Amino acid sequence: MKKIPRDAEASNVLVGKVDFLNKPFVAFVRLAQATTLGGLTEVPVTTRFLFVLLGPQGKAKSYSEIGRAIAALMVDDASICVFVMVLLFIRSHALTLF
After folding, report:
1. I need a surface site. Which of 5, 31, 82, 88 has the fewest CB within 10 A?
2. What is the DSSP string of 10-71?
3. For 8-35, what is each residue's pLDDT tens digit?
4. Distance separating alpha carbons of residues 52 and 54, to the nearest angstrom
5. Which of left, alpha, beta for 58 (phi over 0: left; psi -120 to 50: alpha)?
C-alpha cells in the first residue's frame, strides 16, 4: 500500500461465459462516487469503473481478449478516450464480432 497513491481508484473488468444468454451482454458503469466493493480488488482501493462482459459458450477466448484490451485501456487517464471509442465500436458491431 505504500506505493499506491492516496487518491487511487480501481477499474474492475469482469468477463465470463454463461449458458443462459444467446448473445453477449456488455455493460460499462461509472460510479458517481468511488466505492469499496469488498473483496473484488486485491488491495483496499475504491472502485470507480466496472466493465462487465457476459456471453454464451463458444467465444470465451474472444471475451478474454476483449477483457484484456479493456483493462489495458483503463490503466491511465489518456486511454479513457480510446476506451470510449472501442466501446462504441463494440456496441455498433456486436452482432458481427460475436
Report:
1. 5
2. EEEEEEEE-SS-SS-EEEEEEEEEEE--GGGSSSS-EEEEEEEEEE-TT-HHHHHHHHHHHH
3. 888 889 999 999 988 888 888 888 898 8
4. 7
5. left
Q: What is the DSSP letter of 73?
A: H
Amino acid at 94: A
Q: What is the largest CA-CA distance in the chain?
A: 45
Can you tell me the mean pLDDT for 79-89?
Answer: 69
Residue pair 66/53 in contact (Cβ under 8 Å)? The answer is: yes
